[in-house]
Amino acid sequence: MPDALQPIAAPSYIKAAPAPEGAEVVRQRSTGKKPTLERALLALAQRQLKNGDGTGAQLTLERLHKTVPHAALSQASQLLEIRVLLVIGANDRARAAARDFAKAYPHSPKLAKLSGLLLGS
Questions:
Q1: Element (H, E) at 104
Q2: pLDDT digits 0-9 by tens, 55-76
Q3: Would the pTM of this model clear 0.90, i.e. be above it?
């Protein structure tokens, strides 16, 4: 009987799946602040949108809402979601989301940015 279990190598035909486009390993910063899954997913969605992948950004935001339902960065994620909706051509949904945002955050300094987004649609 062996003293300790030894790891078994995977067969050579099994390969690790590549990371999705724009995904990065989240590392702890030297300041001691641990990056959160919420920040990582929000950053990934922003990069996807910047690279013209509105559908990918939408899927990433859906994952964010499922995994972090009471997000600390909800205003930022809601604004990004409105931008994504505009990019994919869902203008009516974007306007409805913008109205919901304005009702939820009537004193938000981000309302000016929101107005600018909608005027461009």
A1: helix 91-104
A2: 999 999 999 888 887 777 888 8
A3: no
